[in-house]
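Write out the 3D structure for:
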Amino acid sequence: MPERNDQRNDQRNDQRNDISIGSIITRILVSMLVLAIVAFFTPFFSIRGFMPLFMAAIFIGVFDYLIERMTGFDTTPFGRGITGFVVSAVIIYLTGVFVNGVRVSMLGAVLAALAIGIINMIIPGKRVL
């Protein structure tokens, strides 16, 4: 029985490490869609144009990947309770600092993290951002 569990864990790890260009493009497009929706409906959070939206999706994706790789910490808003929520809000806030065309206040980052967390709960399957 333990061998079978080890095989399943190995398969899951292989699937996580197996990144194709198609899956990267899909994640970027889905992230852009979610960010556009969240920016439209969230006060104190705006994205002005396609390129800032694209760059924000890339920045958040890379930052999320680096944090997850270095710490093993799930950075989705509801991935680790209040800690994941705060980390997600900080990532969104830093996106506003580093990406031209993205404006977000700390309150806007908190509201955006909440909105993204709700979207992640509604959409079945893998997390959105």
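The chain has one domain: 21-122.
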